[in-house]
Amino acid sequence: MPIRIKIAVLALATILGLAGWKGLNALIERESPRPDIYSREGQDMTPKVKKTDKEWKAALTPEQFDVMRKCGTERPFSGKYNDYWEKGVYVCAACGTPLFRSETKYEHGTGWPSFTTPVDEKNIEYRDDYSLLVKRIEVRCATCGAHLGHVFDDGPEPTFLHFCVNSAAMDFRPEAAAGAPAPRTETAATETATFAAGCFWGVEYKMGKRPGVVSTVVGYTGGTTVAPTYEEVCTDRTGHAEAVQVTFDPAKVSYADLVRHFFSIHDPTEVNKQGPDRGSQYRSAIFTHGEAQKETARKIMDELESSGKYKKRLATELVPASAFYKAEEHHQKYFEKHGVVCY
């Protein structure tokens, strides 16, 4: 075969190969609808700890550098934290940022430490990863940008998430160690409550006005899709509810008072709707943080059921809190920004 024909055939094969790769990517995008949250509007993905490769090499072991700075993967069942069950907090080996609590660790059988939820979503960042020709969600430390592992949706209840993390990317701080992080991510004087009662714009405004509430944030919880966008939640296929996470001072307002206020600002007998909004993302739900909150909310719900106040039974779900994903920045404090609420 003449050389010019060989060149032409090679060029054609290259073009067809590129076209096939683009087609494969398009197919992956359709079959694996995961958000490109690394470029999500309003999310600051800039590492707060910056070092050169030379500085990181000096600070990390060769294995840590390969995993955390070069996105390497340790061999399965080889990591020191794979079969490790002490109580405490797993922190980023590069910068010390708290990542996962021991009570969220479980045995997935893959050979790497597995967790159901991070200490705080603000400490974690996500990126789309096509390195194996299929779309995965990479997990990174939000403080220093270190590669930690990946997150999948094949985990256990209540989050159904599987954070698969390299041992080399973490250090462990025992529960009794001096200077170990506090069990809660908020200050010791505050607690967290999570509610869903329709469009989160209005719920945030109404819950935020309550004396004793320190701060509020709107987001998505109770579903199975990892880190969904607003558009994905609006399809009513991710399982998430539009929710409000409330940080409150229990010395100024009790959890019971917040629960009663929650029931006063919406119709808890409506199923998957509130006002003009329709869909399971607008359901009524209380996401409890611990047994004490569950018992308090259950008691109040029983009181309301027996009071005769409502003609229909309560439709409010009472479920354990799971992964909470902060909504895009333009949804936060919507009333303060625009002066309107949903209903």
Summarize the structure.
The chain has about 350 residues and is α+β, with helices and mostly antiparallel strands. The protein contains 8 helices and 17 strands.
Explain what this protein looks like in three dimensions.
By secondary structure, the chain is α+β, with helices and mostly antiparallel strands. It has eight helices and 17 strands. The strands form four sheets. The chain has a six-stranded antiparallel sheet, with no helix packed on it. A six-stranded mixed sheet has the order 16-15-10-12-11-17, with helices on one face. Helix 6 (255-264) crosses helix 7 (291-307). The longest helix is centred in the first third of the chain and has 29 residues, at 3-31. Mean pLDDT is 84; it is low at 18-43 and 177-188.
Q: Please outline the major beta sheet.
A: 6 strands, antiparallel
Sum up the overall morphology in one term. Answer: globular
Average residue-wise pLDDT = 84
Protein structure class = alpha+beta
**What letter string, H or E per element, gives the SSE order?**
HHHEEEEEEEEEEHEHEHEEEHEEH
Radius of gyration from the alpha-carbon trace, in angstroms: 23 Å
Distance between the termini: 75 Å
Which residue ranges are poorly predicted, with pLDDT under 50 across at least 5 consecutive positions? 18-43, 177-188
Count of alpha/pi helices? 8
The number of E-state strands comes to 17
Helix content bin = 25-40%
Q: Strand content of the residues, in percent?
A: 15-25%
Strand order across the largest sheet: 3-4-8-7-6-5
